[in-house]
Design goal:
- The chain has three helices and five strands; from the N terminus they run E-E-E-E-H-E-H-H.
- The protein is α+β, with helices and mostly antiparallel strands.
- It folds into two domains: about 80 residues, Ribosomal protein S16 (S16 Ribosomal Protein, Chain: A), CATH 3.30.1320; about 35 residues.
- Strand 1 and strand 2 form a beta hairpin.
- The termini are far apart.
Length: about 130
Amino acid sequence: MAMKIRLARGGSKKRPHYAIVASDSRMPRDGRFIEKLGTYNPLLAKDDERRVIMNVERIEYWMGQGAQPTDRVARFLEAAGVVAKKERSNPKKAVPGKAATERAEAKAAKAAAAAEAAAAPAEESAE
């Protein structure tokens, strides 16, 4: 059985609240799970200790049994120091979009024109 440690959504519309659960990967997101391992409340401030509450011992037990955490749960575990921080690569994240590239080119052209205009009077006075 393929096990996952993932989030199961609860709460009402626009007021999410998640349970961190160990479940069979074939079950639906909010469906049947084996054990509740903690909670996550995204509405709380990021520095609030009640934002993420985990039973670390049980999470380590399930990971020892072969359960794989999802990306979001893995980030919670990295922040708690349970698993080693994984290197992530998103090379397109730092690349500016089309509009930003055009703005940068226009700004560079304007700066070059201003520098050229400033250099021209300096050459005439030198003669």
